[in-house]
Structures are given as structure tokens and as C-alpha cells.
Specification:
It comes from Streptomyces plumbiresistens. It holds the Pfam family NMT1_3. InterPro entries: TAT_signal, TRAP_TAXI. There is one protein chain. By secondary structure, this protein is α/β, with parallel strands linked by helices. It folds into two domains: about 5-125 and about 265-330, 3-Layer(aba) Sandwich (D-Maltodextrin-Binding Protein, domain 2); about 130-265, 3-Layer(aba) Sandwich (D-Maltodextrin-Binding Protein, domain 2). About 30% of the residues lie in helices and about 20% in strands. The chain has helices at about 5-10, 50-65, 80-90, 100-105, 160-170, 185-195, 210-215, 275-290, 305-310, 320-330; strands spanning about 30, 40-45, 70-75, 95-100, 120-135, 150, 180, 200-205, 220, 245, 260-270, 300-305. Strands 1, 2, 3, 4, 5, 6, 7, 8, 9, 10, 11 and 12 form a twelve-stranded mixed β-sheet that branches. Helix 8 packs across helix 10. The protein is globular, with a radius of gyration of 19 Å. The model is unreliable at about 1-35 and about 235-240 (pLDDT under 50).
Amino acid sequence: MMRAVDRRTALRAALGSAGVAVLGGALTGDASGQRPGPAGVLRFATGEPTAFYAAFGRLLTAELEAEYPRLSCRVRTTAGSVTNIELLRDRRADLALVLTDTARAAQGTGLFPRPVPLRAIGRVYETYLQFAVRADSPVRAVSDLAGHAVSLGAAGSGAAVLGERILHAAGLAPGTDVPVRHLPLAAAADAVRAGTVDALLVAGGVPLPVLSGLDDRPGLRFLPLAGLLPRLGDRDGRAGAGLEEVSLPQGAYRAAGGVATIGVSNLLVCRPDLSRTVADALTRLLVLRATALVPDNAVGTQFLDAGSLIGTGSIPLHPGAAAAYRSLHG
């Protein structure tokens, strides 16, 4: 089981994440100036404005622009992993943050009409599936959600896909046994507060500010999910890609400490045609500047070490990233 880390431990981890995409022209090496490196206008597909991906993206783009003055970075907030892969597919982004499970699905499942070729810069960090109900709710387990309205994450997010799998694993039919909505996080929180939604699911670092607000009023209880992992696996019974049992850390929320949930690894992925120079430069910056890329509120986010960075599973590393890792670590 993965150990929860606090911010100080995360700041020592030799790993971070970044993503860029071309806008109106190919990325190039800046061989004419004293500081060689990529140049261009860069777009980074992240996630919802109030969630972890976007916070991470803002930190990353600040580091990129400081290191490479000829880069002009753009953080694009999105619904999440599925939308980000669609942006890569449609050439409206070159890199993005996605759940490992969703990245694997893009290689050939019903989730996408046809396979989307992806390469990875690295396996960058791990977040938590957080399935919360109001503290005064009678619901104690996912199987108790029959007849209760739930929000399973915004349409286009990886959490939305995993959420339906979790309901099926608990023996519930989404839309039949359980009324399902796909609301952005802020709207889902408002609905829980108003009582029009009984539970919400999100994948992210802990504590998430939006959930912290709900935990203060009206109060939250977090449902255990780890027991459903065996039913989220493939035909051979293996857990889904990038999924493992974790415990919500003590102090993240008032009553969440020790709840056994599911950790979800996250990848920085790109189109195969991303410049080797850009991939190399990004990888070196991410390894060396990881301590600057931890959002202030992310006390429970799992930042992985340099050895885990290359563990991207069935998504192959971009050649430029692989070359950078070899150079840095042998």
C-alpha cells in the first residue's frame, strides 16, 4: 500500500509534471541565443479550474517561462482526462495530464471511437478517488447508493468513467439503480450543499479546497472504495491500470483519515510528433524543479520518485524523454 506523504516529503520528491502544446506553429530549439531551448506558444491541457490539475499547471507554466524566456505558456482548463485526450487527438494540444487508466483506454476501447496514439513524458504523481456523502447521510458504502442521486465527475473526466465502473462493481446500474449526473466539481458541491445530489466522486489531491468547504458545512463522510478494486480489474483479475489501494491521510478532512480508497496514477502524455528537443528539455526541468511544482494545499498528493517516473505501463515513453532519463540517471 502506498504511504501518504505530507507537503515536506512531497517537496523532497524528485518528480513533477508538465505539458505543452503548439499554438500556431511548431516548437523549435532556440540555437541563436545564449540560453538554448524550445521557443513558441505552448498550451497545457489540465483540468477543472478549482482542482489539482489546473493548480499544478499554473506552477509548471511559471517554471517553464522562467527557464525558457522564448516560451509563452497557456494553461487550458478542461473537464479532465477524456477531454484532454480528445484535444491531443484533434491536434489542439500536444501534451496533457491524464489518468493512467484513461490513457490505456485510449489505445483501443469503446471509450474512444478509434485508438489515439500517445507517448508519455512520465508517470508524474498519484491522486485519490474521493467518494463523499453528507455526514448526516445514511449511506455508508457504495452499495447503499441505490435510489440516491450522485455526481460522478464532469462529463469528459476520467473520474466520470471510473465512477460508472465503481457503481457496476458495487452491483448497481448507473441511471437505473442510481440517478447519475455529471457535474463540474463546483456545481456538484453546490448540489450536495442544497441536497439535490446525495454523493459526489472526484479524483484529485487531498484536501481539495472545494471538498474542504463542504467538510466545514454541512460536513462529509467518505465512502470506502478499496474493497471494489478486484472487480475493477481486467479479465485476468488484475487491478485496472494505475489503480491501487490507499488510505486517505489523517487530517485531510475531519473524518476521512484511514478510509481505504483507490489511488490513481497520473501521466503526462503527448502526441508522438512532439519535438524530441522539447520532450528532453521538459523532462530535465521536471526532474530538477520538482520541488517547485507542489500546490500549497496538496498535503496528501503522492509525488513519485525518479524511479517511478518511467513506470508508464503500456504507454511508451517519448524518445526525447527516455533519452533525458538515461542522461540524468543512467
